[in-house]
Write a structure and sequence with these properties.
single chain, mainly beta, Immunoglobulin-like, 4 domains, five-stranded mixed β-sheet, 8 helices
Length: 416
C-alpha cells in the first residue's frame, strides 16, 4: 500500500501553501484537521493551509468491508519573517590597544548570504533590532565600535518581501604582547665547529610566548615576511649568528605581533675522545684513594682559556650542572677500586658545554690488567716451550694502551 506522506515541515513567507496527501487509491476519503480540530471532512487529496499551525490528514480506505485509516501530520509556519543561521562575529585586531576599531559592515555580506536560504536579497545593517525591523537608519559607512563587543543587526529582504534579521557581534581582539628578550644562544656541536648549525627555532617558543598555550610563533628572515606571515623558516634552519623576526599569533583570534630576535651561535668546547685513566697507586690496597681530578684536564681539552671545568659523579648531573664535586683536587672514590667520573667543560661567555667521562683507579695495574695464567701445549712432551712474550704483553696490558710492561719469568725450568 502506498505510504501517506505530507513531507517535511514547511516554513516560508508565502500567505498560503498547498498540502498534498494523494495516495493514489480510490475510493478514499480525506479528512483535514487544523491543530487537531476537523476543518474539512472528505475534502479531497489536497488542502490549502493559510495559517501557521499543525495540519493532519486522515485517509480512510474501504478494504473488504473494513475501514483502514492512515494519517500524517505536518507543521506549517507562514510568516514574513524567517529565521536564518547565526552569522559569525566580525572580529578585528587592535594594534594600538585602545579597544576601538573601524568596521566596514559590507565585508560581512558574503557571510550573511551564506547563513540564509538561497535567494536574491537586499541587505542592510542597523544599530538596533527596532531599526532593522522598521528599515530605518541603515549604516552606510564604516563605523567605530562604541563598546567591546557591540551588537549590530542585519536585515535581509528577498524579492517576495520575505524578511530575516540576525545579530552580529563586533569584536576587537588584542594583539599578543611583545616580550623582553635577550639574545638566544645556540651551541654548535656539529662534527665541524664553525659557528654555523641548525638553530632549532621552535625551542625559542616557550620564551617568546611566556608559556601561553594560546600563542604560536613563526620565524622569518625579514620584517615584511613576518608581518604578512609569508615564508616561515623551518625549525632546523641553519645559520651563523644573525637577526630574525618572530611573528607571535593568537591561535584563536589570528591576531599577531612581530618582534626582532637576535640569535648568537657559539662553538661547543671540543673535547678529546681517547680513553683516560687516573691511577692513585693505592699503597695499602684497600680500594680507596685520593685523586686530583684536575690532572685529567690536559687529556680532556687542549686549552682551558675562557672555559670552566667542573666534575660530577653522573652524566645527568654533569649535563644539568647539578651537585658538582666540591673539591676536585682531593676526591676520594666512593666505589671500591675504580669509578667513572664526568667532566663538564663550559664556555664562560655562551654557556655552551661538552661532557665526557674518564676512569679513576686506586691501582690501575690491579684493576685493568689481565693476569690470568698463560698456558701452552707441550707438543713434544719435554716440558719446554719457546715463548713469544709480545702477544702475552698485549694480553696483560688489556686496556692500558701506551704503557710499558716488563716481563719476569719466575723459577724458569732449566733443561736437564
Amino acid at each position: 500500500m502506498p505510504e501517506l506522506d505530507l513531507g517535511n515541515d514547511i516554513s516560508n513567507c508565502a500567505s498560503s501553501v498547498d498540502l498534498n496527501a494523494d495516495i493514489g487509491i480510490t475510493p478514499s476519503t480525506y479528512d483535514w484537521y487544523f491543530n487537531n480540530v476537523l476543518v474539512l471532512a472528505d475534502g479531497g487529496t489536497t488542502f490549502t493551509a493559510t495559517q501557521t499551525g499543525s495540519y493532519t490528514v486522515k485517509v480512510t480506505i474501504l478494504l473488504n468491508q473494513t475501514d483502514c485509516i492512515h494519517e500524517d501530520t505536518i507543521n506549517v509556519t507562514l510568516s514574513s519573517v524567517q529565521t536564518i543561521n547565526p552569522v559569525s562575529d566580525y572580529a578585528l585586531c587592535d594594534p594600538n590597544g585602545d579597544g576601538f576599531e573601524n568596521f566596514d559592515l559590507s565585508t560581512k555580506d558574503s557571510d550573511v548570504l551564506a547563513a540564509a536560504p538561497p535567494a536574491s536579497y537586499a541587505i542592510s545593517y542597523h544599530l538596533t533590532l527596532a531599526n532593522a525591523e522598521a528599515n530605518m537608519s541603515p549604516i552606510t559607512t564604516s563605523i567605530q565600535n562604541s563598546s567591546n563587543p557591540q551588537v549590530v543587526y542585519v536585515r535581509l529582504e528577498d524579492t517576495t518581501g520575505c524578511l530575516a534579521y540576525a545579530p552580529i557581534n563586533l569584536v576587537v581582539n588584542p594583539i599578543p604582547p611583545l616580550p623582553t628578550l635577550m639574545p638566544f644562544i645556540v651551541c654548535d656541536s656539529d662534527a665541524v665547529r664553525d659557528q654555523t648549525t641548525a638553530l632549532g627555532l621552535t625551542s625559542f617558543d616557550p620564551t617568546i610566548t611566556n608559556g601561553d598555550a594560546n600563542l604560536g610563533v613563526s620565524y622569518h628572515a625579514s620584517l615584511v615576511d613576518a608581518s604578512s606571515g609569508n615564508n616561515p623558516l623551518a625549525s632546523n634552519f641553519s645559520a651563523s649568528s644573525l637577526q630574525l623576526f618572530a611573528r607571535i599569533f593568537n591561535i584563536n583570534t589570528g591576531c599577531s605581533n612581530v618582534t626582532p630576535i637576535d640569535v648568537e651561535v657559539y662553538n661547543t668546547p671540543e673535547l678529546y675522545t681517547e680513553p683516560i685513566f687516573l691511577d692513585a697507586c693505592d699503597p695499602d690496597h684497600d680500594g680507596f684513594a685520593s685523586f686530583n681530578l684536575e690532572t685529567a684536564l690536559p687529556l680532556v681539552i687542549a686549552n682551558l682559556t675562557g672555559l670552566t671545568a667542573s666534575f660530577y659523579t653522573s652524566m645527568t648531573n654533569a649535563q644539568t650542572k647539578t651537585d658538582p664535586i666540591p673539591d676536585p683536587t682531593n676526591y676520594t672514590n666512593t666505589t671500591t677500586t675504580e669509578e667513572v667520573v664526568y667532566v663538564r667543560i663550559e664556555d664562560d661567555v655562551s654557556g655552551c658545554f661538552g661532557v665526557r667521562s674518564f676512569e679513576i683507579h686506586t691501582n690501575l695495574l690491579l684493576s685493568e690488567t689481565d693476569l690470568r695464567p698463560i698456558t701452552f701445549c707441550d707438543e713434544d712432551g719435554d716440558g719446554m716451550h719457546t715463548f713469544d712474550l709480545d702477544p702475552v704483553s698485549d694480553l696483560i696490558k688489556n686496556m692500558l694502551l701506551g704503557r710499558t710492561h716488563h716481563h719476569l719469568l719466575r723459577n724458569p725450568r732449566r733443561p736437564k
